Amino acid sequence: MATALKINGKTHQVDLPDDVPLLWVLRDEVGLTGTKFGCGVAACGACTVHIDGEAVRSCQVSLSDVWGDVTTVEGLGTPDAMATIQKAWADHQVAQCGYCQSGQVMQAAALLAENPAPSDAEIDDAMQGNLCRCGTYPRIRAAINDAASKLKEA
Ligand code: FES
Ligand code: FES
User: Fold this and answer.
1) Separation between Cα atoms, residue 63 and residue 13, nearest integer Å
2) Ligand 1, closest atom to CA 47?
């Protein structure tokens, strides 16, 4: 029996085994390839998406365990009206190879939703599970601080 999943505001009927990780549902079934596969064992954060606003590792959530609405990096903003966080990422030229960055953005969005004015230590703590082999951590921190300021002004 197909499972109904609401992803980025749209309902999808997914006819796959219950134990298929959400990551592969998103990438292979729904075609949302912004969410990346890195490690497959919850150790890198490349696959981070939101379920009901909570940042989760989609490689570790089975289809049958998805408990709410899913948001991927594609659902945070559009190319014409980029979300504040994505604009801060662009302004600070955060991405190097870019592979980890959708996961970084999703983790940052969850952080700012929970804590609109995080300290540098709180940013580092919240982001520590999202690895970047290109070492963009200082720019990630700067972009989060910038996004926090812009969101406060909005
Ligand atoms: S691919 Fe999911 S945490 Fe690395
Ligand atoms: S930008 Fe290359 S892995 Fe993070």
Assistant:
1) 11
2) 2
Tell me the CATH number of domain 3-74, given options 1.10.3720.10, 3.10.20.30, 3.40.630.30, 1.10.645.10.
Answer: 3.10.20.30
Close Cβ partners of 133 (under 8 Å, ≥ 6 residues apart): 97, 99, 100
Residue 81 has pLDDT above 70, yes or no: no
Q: How far is CA 5 from the centre of its chain?
A: 17
Probe residue for ligand 2, chosen from 94, 100, 140 as the CB with the greatest number of ligand atoms within 8 Å: 100
* Per-residue model confidence as pLDDT tens digits over 11-60: 999 999 999 999 999 999 999 999 999 999 999 999 999 999 999 999 99
**Helix residue spans in 33-134 (DSSP H):** 84-91, 101-114, 120-127
